User: Fold these one by one.
Assistant:
Number 1:
Amino acid sequence: MKLGLFIRPVGHHVAAWLHPNSHVDAGVNFQRFVEMARTAERGRFDMLFSADSVTAWTAQQEGLHHTHYVAWIEPFTLLSALAPLTKNIGLVCTATTSYEEPYSLARKFASLDLVSGGRAGWNLITSDNATEADNFGRISHPPKIERYRRAREFAQVVNGLWHSWEDDAFLRDRASGLFFDRSKMHVLDHDGTYFRVRGPLNVARSPQGQPVLVQAGASEGGMELAAETAEVVFAAQSTLEGGIAFYANVKGRMAKFGRDPDELKILPGLSVTVGQTEDEAKSKFDRMQSYIHPDVGLGLLSTRIGFDLRGYPLDGPLPELPKNDVIGSRSEVLVAMAKRDNLTIRQLYERFAGARGHLEVVGTPSQIADRMQEWVEADAADGFNVIVPYFPDGLNDFVERVIPELQRRKIFRTEYESTTLRGNLGLRGSQIRLPAAADELVAASR
């Protein structure tokens, strides 16, 4: 079983900052993240994962002052600072293909991979928050289909750049005066629909060969891109049946790209509230839910589904929504959840405020381990991206109570197998598989 820790200022619950035990200053206090990282590493997590958005408008503007998650330490900088303070845990963060450039992104993540000794990963997103366009001089945010076309070429270019140097390309031979072997440098010379990139990358290979490529899309385009390029997929599935179907769908697409299903690890989000007893866990959960301000819940839900719900009865059903070609697949998950469980708008935002559409388990360590084991054994997951309501208590509870239970069942490691993220995930190392188009480009450059 593989485990990521979804780090977020204060916690994942939208009202996390209101809990009296939470690290309310985590958005500006780096030492809070150091504590998170060291606790997760003590728990033998595979990776830290930080999401990102390049806008402060993460919810509808009205009521925004009630929520905390509008300003935070930029994740790449954060993980770079955490690299020398950790030893084994992977460092994965989000960067968007819609508002980045392939060369600069490839260079940054390759550098983090070197600094960390082979523990970096890039979570490829296309951005589903339309307000991000306002910060980059764009008239509008591109529709999903266009974003995924750009993302596919973006991933090919980045992969090609990460293949610029072979492992033993740098001779550093003072006697001969040769610093590198030119035959082991590969110039990409990419000229595509969206990008023209010559290369090579001016960063050498790391101990794991290249950063791990992570993806989270669940739309048709997202699943296709994941099957072709991703090595880890963060999924949002709240039912076992949905998890099994998603797992089979994505892994079933891989053969046409010449890939083995074991080359991809699927980690659904798992929101956990841990108690020594079931009643204690439910009490903790109910307390967190009581902190949700209606304006915040409604604003958050409106943003995530791409439709302004203000003015609709909170205790009424979700209205019929118009087709949205911009917002990502999470909106479809929320609408399906509301219809499946007959939820009111209030009930839907209450459920989303904590778990954000992911699997949610409230119970004892044994009950949580039961659910995790069930999903892995049913081929609904290879592990989980763990979400805790607030830091530090939620993480401490998981590491001190749930991890020992998983270890007792012999379904989770007691020691790290490797010092690289690939090694711990059981992924291939420096022999990099490139998408077909990038393979051809690299071959042509030799």
Note: The longest strand covers residues 265-274.
Number 2:
Amino acid sequence: MNYSKKSFSISEQIFFAQRLSLMLDSGISLIESLHIIKSIDNSIKHKKIYEFIINNCEQGVSLYKSMLLSKVKFDPLLITLIKNGELSGSLVASLLQVAKNLEKRNELKKRLISTLIYPVFIFIATISMALFLVLYIFPKILPMLISMNIKLPLLTIAVKTIYEVSISHGFYIIIFLLSFIGIVFLLIKKNNYFRLLFHKSILIIPVYESYFKTNTLASICGIGEMFLSSGKSLSDFHYFVSDSAESIVYKNTFKYIYNQSLQGISFSNSMKEFPELFLQTMIDMCALGEKTGNVSAMLGHCSRIFEQDIDIFLKRFSALIEPTLMIFMGLIVGSIALSIILPVYEITNHLTK
């Protein structure tokens, strides 16, 4: 049984966890709950997946194993906490925990997307207007400028060069850029070395680096709080992150931390070796948690602190991006407009004389 890896979005997995926990908490059996969820889902593909999972569960296979056998790419946290809940007899609580965590992550992702919609729109509008001026308006006055035999301003020469290159080689440039982007995308997706380089480059991009690190650590701390509060050990938490982290940089780092933990080295001391990846707040809070025997609570505090930092970052970003984009738009469009206006001004002076 092999379905598309994108059969269930994060939102759909959240709904699945919420509905299943509600039904189980109401006293409905697991099989009956899955049948109800299957009946209310309108997706034919989802119904087939639920049918496969139900058939396995009816044969005595656990829920988490049935989900793994379906080959659907469920979130690793969902699978792990369902497994933990089935083994400990606290499946309802585990489902509520994972639904809450996935909802937080999904909400952060939505906020980032909504924050970026306006900048992307302005950027596309600016490029479109620039192309309109260069490829449609500028060619109409270019013959006149050449026929007047006047010295063209440097800005006009630059735009003229861009126009000529666009006309003669524009198609090939577009094909080259699309091919280059496609090749880079495939290399990042298929090759671990290039994926590692890409993830490392993210950590040195100004501004975004801070957001990426804080967002990643907020998710890691939230997962750590759930793992430790459900009876798992720090080593289990380290192993899970090393196996499921999206960033290869953090994945490799947690593999190292996991090996360190097996040797008895504390989490906080291991993190001190990677100051570029872990915020000092997290290191200090975990050190305090290790002394008091309450690392779970400290990771929970870190998660909430980092989520607040992300909120502040997005608000500041939204406030700063508008004037920055206006300046960018003014420079691009204004430069092209000046490249047209300046020669016309020269012609007017020439005719006056």
Note: The two ends are 84 Å apart (CA to CA).
